[in-house]
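Exercise 7b. Backbone tokens:
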């Protein structure tokens, strides 16, 4: 595992939290993850999907790479780790594969169109991170390797696009049904 080298305040406070937990006398397992997405709450998937549904043009960074990870995937791993007293320390859990935010936005668009979650959407435009004038520095490459925890738990990592498809299906199935007009 590479040594931590946070480049912004958010990363430094996360590392400080990890260090406080690992220096405590209690049993612990810190699980690092990245780019979480879900059918609920505010996350990249929801932001892109809302823009597509509203017909707004979408730009996404093409110069940052990491691993989009489904919240449900992470929850399953936490559930597996909870009763196991032997799991301790710091571990990584991410889904399989890697992507840029642009790749992720393109996949959201393609799947949303294919299942009818949106009926039309302009192509996604790739842009450099500097175009977005971010308030905080972000790492250009933050792909984590979760193979060790996968091996220890006997849990295969599924590709992030599989999870994305299931999550978008779930969003589609949970949409409110429009009332029928007239009788």
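Sequence design result:
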């Amino acid at each position: 595992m590479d040594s931590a080298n946070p480049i912004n305040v958010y990363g430094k406070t996360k590392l400080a939290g990890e260090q406080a937990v690992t220096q405590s006398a209690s049993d612990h397992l810190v699980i690092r993850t990245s780019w979480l997405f879900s059918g609920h709450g505010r996350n990249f998937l929801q932001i892109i999907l809302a823009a597509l549904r509203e017909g707004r043009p979408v730009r996404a960074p093409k110069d940052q790479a990491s691993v989009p990870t489904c919240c449900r995937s992470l929850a399953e791993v936490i559930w597996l780790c909870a009763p196991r007293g032997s799991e301790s320390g710091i571990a990584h859990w991410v889904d399989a594969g890697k992507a840029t935010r642009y790749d992720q936005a393109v996949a959201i668009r393609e799947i949303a169109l294919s299942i009818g979650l949106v009926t039309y959407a302009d192509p996604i435009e790739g842009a450099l991170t500097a175009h977005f004038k971010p308030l905080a520095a972000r790492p250009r490459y933050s792909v984590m390797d979760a193979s060790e925890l996968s091996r220890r738990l006997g849990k295969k990592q599924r590709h992030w696009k599989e999870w994305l498809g299931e999550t978008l299906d779930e969003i589609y199935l949970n949409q409110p049904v429009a009332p029928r007009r007239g009788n």
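Instructor comment: The two ends are 65 Å apart (CA to CA). The chain has six helices and eight strands.
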